[in-house]
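cache lookup: miss for this entity combination. No prior model stored, computing from scratch. Input as submitted by user K.M.:
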Amino acid sequence: MGENDNSEIIEHHVEEEMEKKGTRSRTASSSFPGSVTPSDREGHSGTQSSHRLLAYSDALISIIATVMILPVAHTKLQGNDEELRQSVQLLLSTKIAVYLMTFLIVTVAWAAHIRLFQVIVRIDDCLALLNLACMMLITFLPYTFSLMATFPENILGILLFCGCVMVMGVIQSVIVVYAFSRPFLLNEQIQISENLTVYKHHILKVIMRVPLMCFLASIFSFILFQISYVLLAIVIFLPYISRSLKWCRSKAIGQVEETPDSILFYTFLPEEPLSKDRVEAFSDGVYAIVATLLILDICEDNVPDPTVVQKQFGGSLIAALQDYGPEYLAYFGSFATVGLLWFVHHSLFLHVTKATRFMSMLNTFSLAFVGGLPLAYQLTHEFPRNSRNELEAIQISCVIIFFAGIFQLAIWVVALYNEQETLHPYVRYGGREHVFMLAKLSLYPLVALGTFFLTCILSQFSASIFHLMEITVPFAFLVLRLLVRGGLAMLRLIFCPDRPDQGSVVEEEDDETRVPFNALVT
Amino acid sequence: MGENDNSEIIEHHVEEEMEKKGTRSRTASSSFPGSVTPSDREGHSGTQSSHRLLAYSDALISIIATVMILPVAHTKLQGNDEELRQSVQLLLSTKIAVYLMTFLIVTVAWAAHIRLFQVIVRIDDCLALLNLACMMLITFLPYTFSLMATFPENILGILLFCGCVMVMGVIQSVIVVYAFSRPFLLNEQIQISENLTVYKHHILKVIMRVPLMCFLASIFSFILFQISYVLLAIVIFLPYISRSLKWCRSKAIGQVEETPDSILFYTFLPEEPLSKDRVEAFSDGVYAIVATLLILDICEDNVPDPTVVQKQFGGSLIAALQDYGPEYLAYFGSFATVGLLWFVHHSLFLHVTKATRFMSMLNTFSLAFVGGLPLAYQLTHEFPRNSRNELEAIQISCVIIFFAGIFQLAIWVVALYNEQETLHPYVRYGGREHVFMLAKLSLYPLVALGTFFLTCILSQFSASIFHLMEITVPFAFLVLRLLVRGGLAMLRLIFCPDRPDQGSVVEEEDDETRVPFNALVT
């Protein structure tokens, strides 16, 4: 590559650095062209940047969302008795329901937290402590779900849940009132706006909506508890459903909903930007905890008892550990899968310039399946080899991996619909990394789909082979760039044989991408 | 406070924002005055900022370091049989040893990872995948410790551990060689330096030191396995010991060790800066996982079985849950403690401008005790009320909290020794927040110490009262500022009654702190 090419890449780097440095302030004011710098406002002794508080909250919320897969994965599935097996399956489905409900409601709470702290950009000690109280209640929610799932006809679980949500609503309102009484804590655009009180009332109204629904649900629970569940389901799914519907309508009719100029936050539009930093931090947390849960199982279950080793294996530890061989393979295979799904996510968000609510929703779905991977790991090594169950376990693993990958691909597809705003020029249609990104994103869904159909055709398929496949996928990523280059060159050779080489093509693309990114957006 | 005061605070804010934005590039080049901007160098297609890779690695390492407390906390301590109790205690001490060893070795690996990626500041796909392979091996280390602790006389655990470390050394060497073959991935200061190969050989030499020791250990394990353990202990503790000794000597004699100008990284000096961002991210991860492990226990253990509720409590869920009352209290108390220790840590690092190796070491010790909190939680609610064991459990909790807090205080004390470089003017001697910071940092050690002596004096002390105390501490933090202000005002009134009011004192302090921070450092 020539000198010309290098200078263009330097521009890319400058932009990357700029992005990295300015992300926090940029995301907070991204919807406002020409915003003032965060330090133009007057301050107060003891105010702090909220950066680390948010990072800690993201870590807490992502772990609490994911860790509920542990009770699911720890459910023992063995049992020769048919009746016992049915009761175990009931227990398992209950626990899976708890996991999914926790994941959904926690991510809803997390989205609300993001939006709150896009308005409040600086904190002081008091806000930090209030936020910690909020976190304490969020981490308590999974327990209320466990109660609800185990005793669906007892209203105590509902009441506890509604109580937590209502207290959280009160705390959040206190946070908003406190922050608006000290305007230097707020986003600059709100600080300088004339109608501070309008903002305050709008935000309070949005925040209090969920606690009010919960209050209704807790009252109805005394009359007819089924209605409470319906109400709670509405609370959880309403934002998702209304967002998807609105998005579909806006895409179908092309009609863009108008927001009043005075209210720029809390719009509930699918295009509303969510802090990309925080979406990344949350995803990192989920991937990290999933990767770690695997080794926790290994350490708890796969250390043989010294007396057993002495008696059954004549003191030979190696012989005793040979029994666990497939589990190590399963561990490395699963870790490779989690790591590579993170890698694909990382590559994708490197080229995403703005995360919208809709993209964040798809990301949540992808993460919910990633969180299911410990279950897949548990299933694939639990059953005796070459049994019918082993085949089913591999199929379940494939389904989980497929959906985790396909939702990542969906994020990109959604981003492409609005590529001028949400994607880096490199990966837009015709960008130099476009095809490579597509290949990266579709590798896992394709491999999972292929394996799934392979298990349908073959009557026998060993879990060990499956895990070996998982371990070899990283090498596929290493050669992917070569494959894509080779494939593209071949396509060019076939369809445009008059073009001398691909160097000129690359330069052409450079001309397009060399336009500064901001100029393209505005 | 007057107009004058406000302008000074704005300066504080500007600086804070600058710090936040420039941390990544600043820490990487902090030892080099007048460094060039990161984007002055030529780049290459596919290079990426390493920010998110490092955040993910921090999350993984912090979780793996902390999660090994789970097997410790899950060990059931009950048992009326004296012999059984002894075997349980042996098991418990084994598991605690595994936890501490994991925590230490993982933090050593983490420090090596920080230093490696202070040299390599940009990544591409290949480096990202190599780093993931490294992470996979790090997460496997706890299992090798479990084997070592369960079968101390079997060399398999040692061999596995040494194998992992050697493979990690090879991968890290490959990373270094790869990065030096593509200099645009490196730190700018190394890029422009003449002696690239000197750097490369120095770094490779430092990296290969540990794998070589492990190679020796694995050979000795065939001859006399005790020597291997000694060698491994040296590997783990040598950096800590040599650092502490060197630091003590330099403080005692005042002699500062000279480093050759050509080698600025990998110096092993206690003053060597470690990325403050990453120290914060690692600490956040540990605090978050500890807070979450508590609710996991609640969800797994405290949901009663439906049949038990039907038979024993006549279907009354509330009656069944009343048994668990103390556990909820224990949960909220422990969460409040973890949250507030994080809050103190957050307040401290907000005013720390540079994290040195020695501070990071003290931070690690503090975090190791924080990681022990789930054990304290498990102990305080496991024993029958008003028993001798309950008192001991509370004392253990106090000891854990005391050490977690006292090491945080130690970080600050060490920072004060070199306050011009490591602390923000606000919290230095005479700074306006100095006394308040001291009060914040010493609150937990004092409370823990007080409770400990209270339990020694009183023969009975309920765990419920202990947890109620834990929950009330946040309010102490809220009124702490008022208390400190009141106390200072009273001291001034007693010792300097001729001074009219404290306003003038504050202004005097302001004059000192208004000097731009950078001017003070250089």
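stored under new cache key. The first strand of chain B starts at residue 48 and ends at 49.
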